[in-house]
Amino acid sequence: MEELWGRKVLLDEIHSAVVEQQAIRQLPTMQEEKQHVRCLRCGQFHLKRAVRLPNQHYFCPDCLQLSRVSSDQCFYHLPEPFPTKRAVFFGWEGTLTTGQQTVSDELLASVQHFESRMIWAVTGAGKTEMLFQSIHYSLEAGYRIAVASPRVDVCLELFPRIQAVFPEESSILLHGKMEEPYRYTKLVVCTTHQLLRFYEAFDVLIIDEVDAFPFVNNAMLDYGAKQAVKPQSSLIYLTATPTKGLLSLTKQNQLQTSILPARYHRRQLPVPKTKWCPNWRQKVQEGHCPRQLMRLTKELIKNNDVLIFCPSIHLMERLEEILRKKFPETTLAAVHSQDPARLEKVMAMRKKAYRILLTSTILERGVTFDGISVIVFGANHDVFATAALVQIAGRVDRRKTYTAGEVWFLHNGLTTAIKSAIKQIKKMNLLAKERGLLDEV
Ligand SMILES: [Zn+2]
């Protein structure tokens, strides 16, 4: 029975022999309208003639990666049991900064009142620690709680940290490539895709990196998140770079928001500096290293390792060849999303195996390296949207020890994205100063 509590799954997704039981509810998989069908797993509408099967039923192409759902099937579901209070061991011994504590308290109040909230915390603020108090409260109240992220690497990092704080609590990590079979737990860490398999399951749902791909502007995952929570529940959005949609909800007072403008180490966010770099694209394509990039790299590498963000893989590969000739004595590598050695290279960079790492936007979030400076090469390129630039700048100075890391945007035309990224960072620093969350350097 437990296996189906709060779930919405197809017959072949069920592990135990529970479907015989009478209490089990069968929910429709599709809703038919005149010309369209709506998939009730992912909420998407399709033209009937586009998704008709030979047997005259319909299937959904949008959530195919979870397994094919068609209108001749049904979902199996059981409602969550009523929450019962219990004692839950809380194994966290750290302390929160003043700023973190305020946000943690506001979050708890939202959870207690089944309200939604956005937590806008700058990169490197220490977001995870602020969740522990509310997770503990929820578990003790008998609630079911999920921490979800669009990015599997974020889930992989979050899960052991949360497990360490609640070592006696049974918990599960769910993502597309997991091998462990599903089982019922009150504490779930999962990718946002996995939420499509839940129905009115969670009293509290926390979505980390809510502005990241693939969650951002994704109607299917948004539908999944809203289906996964109980009618009376608390939906918490965590982000360092909120989307326009979330910000406008905040402005209209439709979403309560906590802002944490300072990092836990009480230093301000590094403000990116801009440098004019004419014809950066042509120069690299012709096999030359732009003079500004050369000078800057030489300067920055005296104090820190250097991460160079490139707007395209093609350009990055050309630049890699050029820099290898210019810096023959320096350990150097390049990494992008399709690189099979991606994880190894990131690990090697963490262990300081390279002095220079060229990267696509893949490393814009979710990674922390010790002692680095960052250059965004061709920062006026379209791939570098405001959120990407704020996240990239946020890679620098995340550790407790100060290494004078710098952020540079090399461009040949200031874009709105560059200007608004710098403005946003400065605004957060000012807010942090006003609230007394920074130490004098
Ligand atoms: Zn679907």
SSE order and pairing:
Elements: E1 25-28, E2 30-32, E3 36-39, E4 45-47, E5 74-77, H1 98-112, E6 117-121, H2 132-140, E7 145-149, H3 152-165, E8 171-174, E9 187-191, E10 202-207, H4 219-228, E11 229-239, H5 244-251, E12 256-260, E13 273-276, H6 280-285, H7 291-300, E14 305-309, H8 313-326, E15 332-335, H9 342-350, E16 356-359, E17 372-377, H10 386-393, E18 407-411, H11 416-434
Parallel strand pairs: 6-11, 6-12, 7-9, 7-10, 8-9, 10-11, 13-18, 14-16, 14-17, 15-16, 17-18
Antiparallel strand pairs: 1-5, 2-3, 3-4
Zinc ion binds at residues 39, 41-42, 44, 60, 62-63, 69.
Could you name the CATH homologous superfamily of the largest domain?
A: P-loop containing nucleotide triphosphate hydrolases
Order of helices and strands: EEEEEHEHEHEEEHEHEEHHEHEHEEHEH
Distance between the termini: 59 Å
CATH topology of the largest domain: Rossmann fold
- What's the alpha carbon Rg, rounded to whole Å? 24 Å
Explain this structure.
The chain contains 11 helices and 18 strands. It is of the alpha/beta class. The protein folds into 3 domains: 2-77, no CATH class; 98-260, Rossmann fold (3-Layer(aba) Sandwich), CATH 3.40.50.300; 273-434, 3-Layer(aba) Sandwich (Rossmann fold). The strands form 4 sheets. It has a 7-stranded parallel β-sheet. It has a 6-stranded parallel β-sheet with strand order 13-18-17-14-16-15, sandwiched between helices. The longest helix is centred in the last third of the chain and has 19 residues, at 416-434. It is globular. The structure holds zinc ion (ZN). Residues 39, 41-42, 44, 60, 62-63, 69 line the site of zinc ion (ZN).
